[in-house]
């Protein structure tokens, strides 16, 4: 897939042969991390650099790993798989939080970023090891995948029949470390490859040139067409798609202080900001993207003059990075999809987490408990039912 990426010399790729020694195997679609029960989906849609990048943008996705599945050879290398003789397909394994997005939602995101009609490869990458496939972990996943394909066909967006294979999952072998998060580690090479692969140009013709700024789920499209989805539940537990608007839109939407804090990593004054002493029940969302970030059930009085929380609503919406702006390093907190600067997290908070998320009010919008459903955050009402018991 990446052999021709050597143009102009600077795009030469040197691939290591080291791989992880242990596969992610077994038939269960559940994975326990801490006290949360996450679920797993294994999918193939061509170049895993691209599918990993696209699935990681879905709210509720915890992690995406690039690798190989479907063949008999143990511990395959990229060189062996790309030769097309192992039976493996380039695939990704998606770990997601079912309290945020369900399996139907993961499949919806998958369909809208691949060519499901090409069983001989994927865009510029040719061969059976690049064909689209869904590796189902259970009978339930198989049935949902079959219904999802029916919905995809019902949209009549494609001029060729859907030709995506449904394969029982056996083992998943993570690819070489070099391939993991490739789009983050090598953004220029990744963008060069992706543009020249023709993937995005094809997706624009199927889903519309505004598909990234105004995304529509398959269920949304069917509803607009006056058709009924065969799936019993909506593709996502949150119908909102969280994206970062253009800088011009952000400037027009925010106050100067909100812009300085979220876009320029500024800090507001303590004790005079909007939410430092707010005691009303509700949730706090990113002022830019609307991502749900913190709940009043985790808010406490820290004495610092800024809103303080012991934990986020869901770590899927939070990114933590080391900040060296002061003499000593601190852990900066940003929103995952809006990429807004929120504040910092410190290890001096109350139990059971021991953490203090010190957040700028200017980066937040407060949604009162009584308005959650109206604002599209009704699934978080259960936070307050639990707290009242």
From TrEMBL:
Residues 247-369 form the MsrB domain. It is an enzyme of class 1 (oxidoreductase). Residues 1-21 form the signal peptide. InterPro entries: Met_Sox_Rdtase_MsrA_dom (IPR002569), Met_Sox_Rdtase_MsrA_sf (IPR036509), Met_Sox_Rdtase_MsrB (IPR028427), Met_Sox_Rdtase_MsrB_dom (IPR002579), Mss4-like_sf (IPR011057). Residues 228-241 have a biased composition (Low complexity). It catalyses: [thioredoxin]-disulfide + L-methionine + H2O = L-methionine (S)-S-oxide + [thioredoxin]-dithiol; L-methionyl-[protein] + [thioredoxin]-disulfide + H2O = L-methionyl-(S)-S-oxide-[protein] + [thioredoxin]-dithiol; L-methionyl-[protein] + [thioredoxin]-disulfide + H2O = L-methionyl-(R)-S-oxide-[protein] + [thioredoxin]-dithiol. Its EC number is 1.8.4.11, 1.8.4.12. Residues 224-245 are annotated as: Disordered. The active site is at 47, 358 (nucleophile). SUPFAM superfamilies: Mss4-like, Peptide methionine sulfoxide reductase. Keywords: Multifunctional enzyme, Oxidoreductase, Signal. PANTHER family: METHIONINE SULFOXIDE REDUCTASE (PTHR10173), PEPTIDE METHIONINE SULFOXIDE REDUCTASE MSRA_MSRB (PTHR10173:SF59). Has an important function as a repair enzyme for proteins that have been inactivated by oxidation. Catalyzes the reversible oxidation-reduction of methionine sulfoxide in proteins to methionine. Belongs to the MsrA Met sulfoxide reductase family. In the N-terminal section; belongs to the MsrA Met sulfoxide reductase family. This is Multifunctional fusion protein. It comes from Litoribacillus peritrichatus. The lineage of its organism: Bacteria, Pseudomonadati, Pseudomonadota, Gammaproteobacteria, Oceanospirillales. The gene is msrB_1.
């Amino acid at each position: 897939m990446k052999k021709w990426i050597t143009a102009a010399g600077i795009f030469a790729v040197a691939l290591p042969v080291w791989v992880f020694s242990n596969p992610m195997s077994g038939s269960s679609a559940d994975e326990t991390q801490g006290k949360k029960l996450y679920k797993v989906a294994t999918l193939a849609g061509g170049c895993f650099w691209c599918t990993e990048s696209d699935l990681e943008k879905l709210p509720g996705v915890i992690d995406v790993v690039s690798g190989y599945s479907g063949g008999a050879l143990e511990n395959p290398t990229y060189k062996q798989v790309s030769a097309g003789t192992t039976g493996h397909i380039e695939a990704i394994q998606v770990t997601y939080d079912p309290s945020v997005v369900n399996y139907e939602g993961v499949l919806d995101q998958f369909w809208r970023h691949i060519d499901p009609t090409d069983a001989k490869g994927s865009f510029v990458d040719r061969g059976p090891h690049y064909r689209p496939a869904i590796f189902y972990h259970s009978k339930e996943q198989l049935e949902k995948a079959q219904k999802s394909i029916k919905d995809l066909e019902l949209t009549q967006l494609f001029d060729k029949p859907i030709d995506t294979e449904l394969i029982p999952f056996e083992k998943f072998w993570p690819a070489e470390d070099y391939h993991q998060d490739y789009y983050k580690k090598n953004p220029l090479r990744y963008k060069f490859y992706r543009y020249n692969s023709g993937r995005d140009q094809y997706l624009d013709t199927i889903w519309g040139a505004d598909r990234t700024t105004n995304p529509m789920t398959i269920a949304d499209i069917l509803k607009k067409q006056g058709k009924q989805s065969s799936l019993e539940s909506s593709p996502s537990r949150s119908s909102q798609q969280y994206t970062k608007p253009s800088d011009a839109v952000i400037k027009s939407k925010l106050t100067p202080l909100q812009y300085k804090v979220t876009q320029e990593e500024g800090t507001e004054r303590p004790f005079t900001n909007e939410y430092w002493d707010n005691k009303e029940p509700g949730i706090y969302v990113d002022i830019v993207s609307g991502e749900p970030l913190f709940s009043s059930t985790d808010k406490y009085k820290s004495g610092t003059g800024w809103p303080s929380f012991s934990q986020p609503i869901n770590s899927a919406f939070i990114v933590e990075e080391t900040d060296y702006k002061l003499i000593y390093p601190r852990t900066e907190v940003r929103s995952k999809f809006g990429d807004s600067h929120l504040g910092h997290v410190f290890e001096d908070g109350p139990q059971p987490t021991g953490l203090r998320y010190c957040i700028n009010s200017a980066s937040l919008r407060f949604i009162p408990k009584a308005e959650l459903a109206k604002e599209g955050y009704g699934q978080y009402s259960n936070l307050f039912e639990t707290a009242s018991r």
